[in-house]
């Protein structure tokens, strides 16, 4: 640490408790007694509670301490402070930050290295420096400054180092060291080095103030080694006024000032010589004391009053210097001898270090608090810029001979030394290297220690950050949906159920994000640790020491930087892990929900279809039972997932809202994670998705789209928005009259869900489709769209994935039990299995048949016939028939793809019947694109996953469930249904 120019360096040292205090401090005790609710009741007698003292200083790190920290044990807090008016702070719990804080285990060497040692090089370069110890009586000032014979303090350690350095530079410099030692006792200056028998002047020695402050008449000694200085100090201390007081048996009743004057001149003689002079002052102030506390009487009381007076004057100077910045305002130095003597140390041309000594225990509560406030003020002092004391001396010609003689002596000395010079230099180098290595090691140790102390807390904070951001995101999403729900007016029971579920979900997230949540508390603790860690790394990086050469200094900085980087890495990993964990959780939940949704949708569709088409009296209760079971299972799953049941909601009013909100959200997300081409069309897809979502409700939809593929199976598809009229169609297949519409395209196969959605439509509306023939022409029309819709399409493989709303109901007719496996629609490779040729075949076939106006009726009859003709369920048969001109297999030759799905023929047949609606009314043969639902395609679109063909229409729902055969293809998908359960009740695997 360097006493930087412009400010005073303030270091605080906490002394260990003395034996009297130690006996009254609580033993470290681990009280495991459970006191239950009576936390404030007096606990059983333990060693901890018989103590009358407590520690009032808590060291946070090497720069921060807390005075009077809050007691965490409420019973102790109560015992110590009793009842306090509400709002009163029970503990001061005040944090102070200094340049350095030493705990009670700090050694003299540690204190010296961080305070006085950094000043030494400056002193040798000609800068004045002052080290003074301040504190209440008995807090360890004398111990720190003088120390004992066996454990010498700053004076000895400084002088030993100083003489070592002087020795190192003796070849180039002539260095003179002169020492004076005085005390200020009752505002009188006394010379501690003068013979006691010599009478001292009345009123003490005088201070002379010029550009420097000097005390006239002092004995000046010239020691040649640290040992000599030590003896001088010990001698002076024996003459110093000391008296036992209640607070300290060896209380110093005076301020002692040791001044070391160092003058250096270069050994190389020349006509002019540049001398540097510097004064190092080491001051042991008398301890401040409160008269009431010390119970001093008589002389001791007078001494105490004078001590306090001079310390008060010192405090006033410090305050004035703080406020004035050391320049403008009057600083009352003249109010006491002490402040006059310290004038240039405090606000002048001097580097100053203040060592503040404090006691750790509560019996010094007020003294310690005052001292810390005092020291805190001192940190704000701004001193003048420190300058070097250099004196240029021109030699007189008459002194040349003297200079020549000195040079001759020097030459002789140098010659004599030359032999052993290398050895000596090597020794010096070795010592310096060892010192630098020790310094680096010390810094490393500090860094490692702090790293280990704070890592757990900081990483925990990073984890909390991740968790909090996840919770906030969840909450945002939930709130957004809740707002949507609330804005939708009077709520139907299903929306009520959803709202309640969402609120149940929001609860824990809200708790998590609250400012007083455990997670936030952990985050706060972590940021404290982080601040401490950063402060330590900063302190280590900025640590200046004479012992550190440039390389070692860089090493230390590097060490600190590495540790910081390491910590950042750990933090990032912690946050990443927590986010990863959250993503895993959510993925699992999502998979469950998707599974539930898909299977529910399929079952609902089947139920609706079955009810509508069969009309058998037995089916209704069975279907109702299945739906009931499904509901129970769903509820069970919801309860497991979010801890909330929807069992109490009854949609007796039948007011089911549509599913727009989910479709929008889900679809947008899917698009955003899709290929770039898909993302570009997000607006379009969102619109289509809203159409899809409408199909979830009971409203039939005209889901007429076509896929425009430039190459079959390629994932790069272009989406086009369906026509507005298609989207807004309130009636299914109403677009029979929409001849003016240009084109409609299907969404990409691998792309995304509205293909699925299309499959739901017939499920919901199957009743009317299968039972009401009059709806068919309308439907077929809408499937096809207008002539112009198809003409502006250039690609002819777009039908590859074409599908139509009735695909579900018609596609499944008469194909119960079919087990042909095919790739899932969700499988990206799905499209690749399709061939362009096949699509073209479909187109051609459809084209050919498109001119027949009776096709809708025909297709219905075909479908009905097929329902009664199991043979037609066979793909091969149908295919053969198609080749032979069978209406069900209208495509011919290579252009007709082989049967891909079991329901293909009847679909193809129906599709064919739809073609006239799609084709131009003038029978224009060159139809480029026809929206056709290839049977296979339709089948695929029917299934949300790899759904087996479910019989509809005249077959019952139970038959559909039976169709959920244990085909490995059926159960291979994650969301497929358990066969056994499907027959009786659906279960989630
Ligand atoms: N860091 C320390 N380690 C061990 N003992 C200490 C320490 N600091 C102080 N002491 C002991 O505490 C006692 C009082 O210390 P000291 O005389 O240095 O206090 P002081 O501040 O100089 O008091 P006063 O102002 O009255 O002179 C001494 O016995 C001293 O040895």
UniProtKB/TrEMBL annotation:
Name of the featured protein: Kinesin-like protein
GO biological process terms held by the UniProt record: microtubule-based movement
Keywords: ATP-binding, Coiled coil, Microtubule, Motor protein, Nucleotide-binding
Biased composition (Basic residues): 717-726
Domain Kinesin motor: residue ranges: 7-381
Region named Disordered: 506-528, 674-750, 766-951, 967-989
Compositionally biased intervals (Basic and acidic residues): 735-750
UniProt-annotated binding residues for ATP: 135-142
Coiled coil: 397-441, 548-589
């Amino acid at each position: 640490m360097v006493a930087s120019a412009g400010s005073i360096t303030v270091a605080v040292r906490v002394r260990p408790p003395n034996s009297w205090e130690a006996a009254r401090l609580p033993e470290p005790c681990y009280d495991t007694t459970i006191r239950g609710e009576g936390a404030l009741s007096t606990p059983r007698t333990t060693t901890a509670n018989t103590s009358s003292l407590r520690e009032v200083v808590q060291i946070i790190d090497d720069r921060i301490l807390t005075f009077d920290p809050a007691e965490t044990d409420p019973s102790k807090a109560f015992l110590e402070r009793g009842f306090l008016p509400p709002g009163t702070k029970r503990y001061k719990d005040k944090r102070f930050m200094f340049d350095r804080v030493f705990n009670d285990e700090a050694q003299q060497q540690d204190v010296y290295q961080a305070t006085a040692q950094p000043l030494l090089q400056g002193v040798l370069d000609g800068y004045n420096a002052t080290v003074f110890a301040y504190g209440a009586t008995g807090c360890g000032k004398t111990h720190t400054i003088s120390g004992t014979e066996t454990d010498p303090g700053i004076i000895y350690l400084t002088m030993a180092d100083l003489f070592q350095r002087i020795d190192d530079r003796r070849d180039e410099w002539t260095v003179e060291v002169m020492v004076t030692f005085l005390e200020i006792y009752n505002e009188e200056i006394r010379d501690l080095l003068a013979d006691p028998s010599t009478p001292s002047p009345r009123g003490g020695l005088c201070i002379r103030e010029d550009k420097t402050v000097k005390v006239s008449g002092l004995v000046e000694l010239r020691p040649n080694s640290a040992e000599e200085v030590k003896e001088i100090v010990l001698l002076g201390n024996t003459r110093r006024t000391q008296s036992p007081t209640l607070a300290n048996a060896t209380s110093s009743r005076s301020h002692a000032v040791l001044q070391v004057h160092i003058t250096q001149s270069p050994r190389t003689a020349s006509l002019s010589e540049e001398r540097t002079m510097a004064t190092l002052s080491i001051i042991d102030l008398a301890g401040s004391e409160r008269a009431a506390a010390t119970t001093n009487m008589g002389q001791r009381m007078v001494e105490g009053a004078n001590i306090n007076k001079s310390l008060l004057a010192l405090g006033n100077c410090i305050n004035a210097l703080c406020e004035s910045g050391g320049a403008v305002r009057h600083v009352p130095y003249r109010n006491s001898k002490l402040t006059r003597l310290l004038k240039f140390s405090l606000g002048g041309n001097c580097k100053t270090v203040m060592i503040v000594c404090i006691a750790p225990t509560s019996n010094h509560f007020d003294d310690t608090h005052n001292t810390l406030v005092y020291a805190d003020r001192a940190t704000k002092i701004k001193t003048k810029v420190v300058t070097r004391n250099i004196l240029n001396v021109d030699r007189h010609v008459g002194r040349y001979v003297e200079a020549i003689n000195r040079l001759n002596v020097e030459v002789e000395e140098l010659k004599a030394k030359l032999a052993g010079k290398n050895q000596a230099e090597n020794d010096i180098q070795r010592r310096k290297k060892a010192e630098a290595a020790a310094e680096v090691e010390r810094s490393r140790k500090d860094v490692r220690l702090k790293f280990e102390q704070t890592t757990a807390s900081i990483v925990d904070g990073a984890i909390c950050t991740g968790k909090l951001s996840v919770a906030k995101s969840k909450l945002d999403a939930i709130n957004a949906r809740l707002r949507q729900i609330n804005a939708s007016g009077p709520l139907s029971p299903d929306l009520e159920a959803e709202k309640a579920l969402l609120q149940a979900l929001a609860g824990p997230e809200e708790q998590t994000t609250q400012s007083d949540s455990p997670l936030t508390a952990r985050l706060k603790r972590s940021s404290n640790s982080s601040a401490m860690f950063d402060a330590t790394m900063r302190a280590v990086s900025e640590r200046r020491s004479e012992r550190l050469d440039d390389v070692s200094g860089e090493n230390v900085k590097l060490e600190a930087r590495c540790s910081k980087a390491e910590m950042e890495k750990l933090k990032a990993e912690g946050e990443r892990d927590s986010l990863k964990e959250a993503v895993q959780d959510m993925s699992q939940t999502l998979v469950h929900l998707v599974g539930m949704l898909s299977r529910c949708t399929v079952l609902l569709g089947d139920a609706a279809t079955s009810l509508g088409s069969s009309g058998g009296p037995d089916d209704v209760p069975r279907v109702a039972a299945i739906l009931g079971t499904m509901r129970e299972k769903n509820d069970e799953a919801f309860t497991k997932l979010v801890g909330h049941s929807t069992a109490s909601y009854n949609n007796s009013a039948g007011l089911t809202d549509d599913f727009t909100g989910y479709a929008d959200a889900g679809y947008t997300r899917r698009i955003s994670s899709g290929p770039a081409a898909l993302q570009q069309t997000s607006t379009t897809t969102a619109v289509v998705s809203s159409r899809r979502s409408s199909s979830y409700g009971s409203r039939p939809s005209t889901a007429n789209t076509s896929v425009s593929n430039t190459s079959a199976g390629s994932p790069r598809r272009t989406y086009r928005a369906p026509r507005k009229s298609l989207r807004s169609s309130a009636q299914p297949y109403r677009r029979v009259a929409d001849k003016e519409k240009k084109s409609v395209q299907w969404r990409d196969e691998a792309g995304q869900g509205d293909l699925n959605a299309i499959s739901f439509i017939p499920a919901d509306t199957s009743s009317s489709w299968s039972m009401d023939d009059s709806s068919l022409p309308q439907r077929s029309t809408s499937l096809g769209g207008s002539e112009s819709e198809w003409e502006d399409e250039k690609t002819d493989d777009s039908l590859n994935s074409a599908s139509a709303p009735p695909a579900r109901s018609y596609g499944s007719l008469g194909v119960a039990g079919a087990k042909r496996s095919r790739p899932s629609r969700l499988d990206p490779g799905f499209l690749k299995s399709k061939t362009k040729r096949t699509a073209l075949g479909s187109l051609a076939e459809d084209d050919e048949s498109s001119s027949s106006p009776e096709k809708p009726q025909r297709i219905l009859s075909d479908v009905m016939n097929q329902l009664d003709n199991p043979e037609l369920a066979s793909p091969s048969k149908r295919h053969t028939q198609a080749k032979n001109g069978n209406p069900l297999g209208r495509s011919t030759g290579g252009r007709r793809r082989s049967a891909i799905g079991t329901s293909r023929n009847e679909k193809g047949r129906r599709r064919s019947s739809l073609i006239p609606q799609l084709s131009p009314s003038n029978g224009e043969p060159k139809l480029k694109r026809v929206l056709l639902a290839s049977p296979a395609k339709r089948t695929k679109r029917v299934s949300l996953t790899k759904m087996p063909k479910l019989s509809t229409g005249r077959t019952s729902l139970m038959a559909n469930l039976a169709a959920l055969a244990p085909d490995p293809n059926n159960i291979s998908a994650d969301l497929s249904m358990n066969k056994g359960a499907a027959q009786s009740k659906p279960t989630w695997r």
